[in-house]
Amino acid sequence: MNTLTADLSLDLLRGAVRGDVVAPGDPSYDEARRVYNALHDRRPAVVVRAVDAGDVIAGLLFARDNGLPLAVRGGSHSVAGHGTVDDGLVVDLSRMRGVRVDPAARTARVEGGCTWGDFDHATHAFGLATTGGVISTTGVGGLTLGGGMGHLTRRYGLSCDNLLSADVVTADGTLITCDAERHPDLFWALRGGGGNYGVVTSFEFRLHPVSDVLGGVVLFPPNAEVARRWREMNAEAPEELNTLLVTMLGPQLPFLPERWQGRPVCGVAVCFSGPAEEDEKVRARLAALGPVLGQAVDRVPYPAINTLFDEDLPPGLYHYWKGNFSRELTDGAIDVHMEFGQTMPSMQSDTAIFPIDGACHRVGAEDTAFAYRDAAFSASFGASYTDPADTERNIAWTRAYDAALRPHTQEAGYVNFMDTDDQSRVRVNYRQNYDRLRAVKRRYDPDNVFRLNHNIAP
How far apart are CA 351 and CA 384, in angstroms? Predict the structure, then answer.
């Protein structure tokens, strides 16, 4: 396409879009192309900052008609960098952040650019919530399409288990609504199958009565005995008690003694959504895990618990992550986590082990695209850092960590924790559901328009 033709085409695109169309040379271009993970410093040919489904359709058709690769940016993170592309078109949904709550039906309809902070703010006004991420700046769309683990998983299942319907722009530019009755094959695939099938412009979720919770973090010395006791506590705990085991460097916060700040520690992030009368029992369980170095645990509004790690992982850092599933947290796996916890490469790096039992196990392995319903834990680990000169060292540390854990885990890892170089793990991640997902891909995206993701080829 020559410059004159390109200019005319962009003028036509701008005429078809209510939001912003941003191209190289525009004053807002650098801001529009910037994504959460600074490791992905890409230069799209054009960014469509959509405000409605019509803008999404216009952007998609423009990319198709001009032979441009298409990236879809949802509400936020995409650590693997799938929300941007060199020399292609980015459909950016981050301005589509409307939330409509129906308190009588206990449902919420949210637009595709919402973050979980947006979601929690709107639903909390009615004393309602559903399973979301553990960082409020995480996008609702990306988290849900990959499965969706958070502080309510044990009690209410994954985010995708609470999805009731979705509006989707398919590869031919058609807007459809899918649910258990309408396009049920697509609805099945969206619940854990990733961003392979279309652009979801809105999601409808089931809500649950959750208002205040006992939440916060307790920090311990970094030893395997704390982790083993946490494993035992999790096996016996009621589903209302959701805790994450974290290894990290001690944060610079008032509740942690200065001599532990910047040193390896073991932490437990707590969310107890049961009755306040049971809080002291929960505190006793936590105190029994080991010598407490410091803690900040109290009754707080549910949205507050999802901001615990916001300041640790702001936009603009460099990230390289891995993850895995496991049926049990073996002593061998605990030893590996403790070993690599001693060599955390930065203050922003950490490991988080999520329990995914309870309600998550009451959904069949073939009921949704999320296939690892026999896993009891999902680990996220990796390096987050501020200096690009440290990239090689941080990637090497993360890969060594991943290799050391492999003998103690299942074959695959949660798709939302996979990085750019994990495409070879996609098939095993979906196990028995992979061929069915390929069939859905052939039906809704036969030309593989939506391939800039952990792709399932048609």
Answer: 11
